[in-house]
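subagent[fold] <- orchestrator: predict structure for attached chain, return tokens only, no commentary.
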Amino acid sequence: MICSRLAHPVLRWQRRLTAAALVPAVLVSACVAPRHLAADEGAGSQSRFVDHSLVIAPEYPCTWPAYPFPRFQLVHQRTIGPDSPYNVDVLLIDGNTATQLDVPPHSVARPDLKREKSGPLGLAYTDKIEPWQFGGEACVVDVRDLLDQAPPGISPLVRPEHVERFEREHRPVRFGDVVLFRSDYSDRYYRPFPEGRRFVADVLERKVPGYPDPDPTCMELLASRGVMALGTDSPSMGPLPDLAEPTHYAGLKYGMIWTEGATNLGALPPTGAFYCMLGPKHAGGPYGEGRAFSIVGGALPQRLIEACRHKRAVDLSPTLSPEYPLTSPGALAGEHRQVYLRVDFLYSEYLDLWHHGHLMDAMAGTHLVPPAYALPPAGSYPEYAPQVRVWLQEFEKRFGPIGTSDMTAEKVPLEWTCGELRIIDVRSLVGSTRPADWPASPEITPQQVQAYERENGPLKPGEIVLFYTGHLDRHLRPKPHDGGVWSDPLLGKSEGWPAPQAETIVYLKERGIRCVATDAPDLGGVDPRRALMTYWALGSRQMVGVEFLHNVGSVPQDRQPYFLFAALRIRDCHGGPGRAIVLYSGPAE
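subagent[fold] -> orchestrator:
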């Protein structure tokens, strides 16, 4: 999303910001977000979000501490200044990082290999799992009595009787449930180094007891109940020292998926909460980094649980692959964002599969735009390029000071990027600009939003507004036919994608909207001045964006669509990859 054509001579002078942010940043608890009122709930029945994700940062034990697993790296490639009006980050990240998702090919071999553990589920990579399977009703199996109850290097085992104890006290587990094993292990031991060695490294070195985990017989019991999703607040679902692979295969061979490295499970009731695990949609991924969270209280959890149980879900995130144009190439030399690269590091002979991580822009594919992307931190005085300074003076004359922000990805409340979905169809704008004016993007104006409201009812605070342009549906193609997404519009060979004016963002804020989404590459469009003003409008109003969606036409708008998006919880990240899905209600009875 970095502006094209912003290379200018450096003029070194400073400008002090004229005011603080228009709206102070609301910093919420790392675990529990503010209460959220769903549209169909009464004033006395509210829902709240609970975060179950470990923070990703270099000083935490967020990666597997064994050779050759790569260490997580966050690179602030560009910061706001003469070379860029944006904060641009690059990630080196492996799927085995912090809170993570396992899918069947982690242990099930491809069918063409014709091996003992081969089967069709050997092709069920992270990009192939159906979106309904990521969510369900949380069933919290309390196994805190097992914590540290084993010799050094050995995992205490969660056995069938622990699940049966839960069933006697509450109810039988079943299809549509997400069974969560709560030991409080991560709550206690996920700490910055050097204390953080206790999380995994000291266990591997047999200095301390292992983390509690289910044995294969427990997996078989859950499979017999029809359970398709699990979670553990241990760093892995595999008991040490010798049951990790048998336990993985015992569950994954049935098509299960699960969360590893969850936290804060004690904030949930034994049953009744809606649990969800979302993460970047990597092509061919046998596992992946993710963001786990729950919704507790009110009528909303049951509504979303029923949607997952009946498989009423739509995936809005394109698959991430080096074959696709996932990041901006820029319009001039040196302006491109980090391309999405697969980094192979460990070969599994039995699976004939490379374990791999990714070197990627923090805004590759479906991603979050936090306020700190376009706003400088408090106390800094950016030396903007001369042309950008002119644009800034123009913006502040019309809309007020841009202010500052330290709201990076991990500080954005989960409830800001989840909510009742309002889809505003702007496809009629496609083809409305003259080729003589290219590069140019059709402008989405406040009047078009107001026309939508007259026909569909007023926007309500907390709803997610998604602009349906159809751009990625039309143009997202693999190489060498990939120019239609970014290159051709940026170079003026074709029309740019529809994008909202800064005035439109300001209007949406007045309507109580916190999150604006698009199925175009970004919310800015191809003109650098207009794009920057749109992002300044978002940041200065403490709003966020979700960009690079597709498949919006598959959402049944008459079925109470609920939008769910969560970016990876990366500390100090000015973007944030993630996945967006929509859950919807059944037909009216």
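orchestrator: received. Logging for downstream: Residues 1-44 have pLDDT under 50 and may be disordered. The first strand starts at residue 32 and ends at 36.
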